[in-house]
Amino acid sequence: MLVRDKVKNRERFTPAENQISDYILDHTREVIEMPLDDLAKKLYVSKSTVIRFCKKLGFRGHKELCVQLAREMNSFIAGDEVTNAVIQQNDSADGIARHILSLKYRALTDTFNDLDLSKMEEAADLIARNHKVVIYGNSTDYPIQLELAARLRSINCDVRLPILPNTDLIEAASWQDDNVAIMLCYNGNSSSLQSVSEILRQKNIPIILLTGYAHTGLQKNATIVLHSAFHAEGTGVRALGSWEGMGLLADILYGFVFARDYEANMQGLKQQEAMLKNAGKVAQ
User: Fold this and answer.
1) Which domain range does residue 23 map to?
2) Are residues 40 and 123 in the same domain?
3) Has this prediction a pTM greater than 0.70?
């Protein structure tokens, strides 16, 4: 989760910490360059109060928080200007194009900056060891599911992709314990996927969950959770951002699996290309 999102979550903040939170949100660029002493004096709080605030957010101290803020600020266009980027009625053609570019770029950089590489490694190891995968997801993520399935099949993974109504539950009930499930669910609110995850958990089948929410009912049954850090509210234009973040997670996961047996996979792709070329010559 991004620093600014953590700062906005005020459930456990003291009055002094709320004051620090407000200042970070309103003066993010200044805070990045501000020494601990100066920040404490500016807010009339002690240095220990600032440090406790940083630790409450999951950082070791003030310096680590500033480093992460700086990384996020370098995500093309930073702050609320991008977070709230939407198409306005009187936008020019150039303005619309830039809004969409900003939204997509922010989704990609937010997700990349928040990426847990160790969990991605674990997920790739699961797939590489088993080579039998079933991919579940909501209809909104179906293009990503299709692309991931095609890529995994290209490196000899046995992939199933339930698409007909109720086949997801049937598939879940029939899978054996040497299989791996990948679930794509950005908003985490799918009763159907929740039922599937319950069945898979009972069968001890590991679940790799790609989701955009820090807290979702699917997480309790997931073996590994990979987050898209971009948080989109509502539908329409902003939904493009959530789709980009989920797509990036799926692409990186494939890249990690590919690297597990790089030489064999490269050789396999070359053979596939040669076969396609020969088939094209025959067709002509």
Assistant:
1) 3-73
2) no
3) no
